[in-house]
Design brief:
By secondary structure, the chain is α+β, with helices and mostly antiparallel strands. It has one domain (6-199): Glutaredoxin. It is 52% helix and 9% strand. It has 10 helices and 4 strands, in the order βαβααααααααββα. The chain has helices spanning 16-32, 44-49, 56-59, 61-77, 94-102, 109-122, 130-139, 144-151, 154-169, 192-199; strands at 6-11, 35-40, 177-179, 185-187. Strands 2-1-3-4 form a 4-stranded mixed β-sheet. Strand 3 and strand 4 form a beta hairpin. Helix 5 (94-102) packs across helix 8 and helix 7 (130-139) crosses helix 8. The radius of gyration is 17 Å and the shape is globular. The protein starts with 5 loop residues before the first strand and ends in a 9-residue tail after the last helix.
Length: 208
């Protein structure tokens, strides 16, 4: 029996397009018979290496204005709740991503990740404070206070730093990014279908 291909999904909780991808990747991957490995990380350090201190959607206001309208359209097309822009953008996702790194091998990683995205972009809630992240964990039947505390331990902070450096070393420069088994990189929510096709071996003629 052939091994099921795996697609790595690198996502950032502050990213609007990561939100869209997170809400649709499971169904799309199941249809393509591809397994998904969820890889939370921080994109801020990668932006900093490019000289940005904030999101490029803030650096270029016209681009940012169109982005919000585009995400609003896509959310409606996908049947998601109406987009609600959080008061602060990009949100500080450090506490949330630390928890996600802690839960990388746990069954609760995906529901937690989707709940964080929903809180931020469907409900407009802050995800920046540890207490807000703990509340999301509590809503999933987990011990929020204890999990947030464990996520802030030095060993887990090191795991997060390693994940950022892995992203950098593999050529990732933004979120969401999809990586196939052979390292082929696809950037952006609108490249999910192409990434899944590539993972299954369905590739444009002339490309290997």
């Amino acid at each position: 029996m052939a091994r099921q291909p795996i697609l790595e999904f690198w996502y950032e909780f502050a990213s609007t397009y990561s939100y869209l991808a997170a809400m649709r990747i499971e169904a799309a991957a199941a249809e393509a018979d591809v397994a998904v490995r969820w890889r939370p990380f921080l994109v801020g350090p990668l932006f900093a290496s490019q000289g940005w201190t904030t999101s490029p959607f803030n650096v270029y206001p016209a681009k940012g204005k169109n982005m919000w309208r585009d995400v609003e359209r896509e959310a409606a097309r996908l049947g998601l709740p109406p987009l609600t822009k959080p008061a602060q953008f990009p949100q500080n996702s450090l506490s949330a991503v630390r928890v996600a790194i802690l839960g990388q091998d746990q069954e609760w990683l995906v529901p937690f990740s989707k709940a964080v995205f929903t809180a931020s972009f469907a409900e407009g809630r802050s995800i920046a404070e540890p207490a807000a992240v703990a509340e999301i964990l509590d809503s999933l039947g987990l011990d929020g206070t204890q999990t947030v505390r464990a996520a802030a331990a030095e060993a887990n902070k090191t795991k997060l730093r390693v994940s950022v450096e892995e992203a950098r070393s593999r050529g990732i420069y933004g979120a969401p990014t999809f990586l196939a088994d052979d390292g082929e990189l696809f950037w952006g929510n609108d490249r999910l279908e192409q990434a899944l096709a590539w993972a299954t071996g369905d590739r444009p003629k002339g490309l290997r």
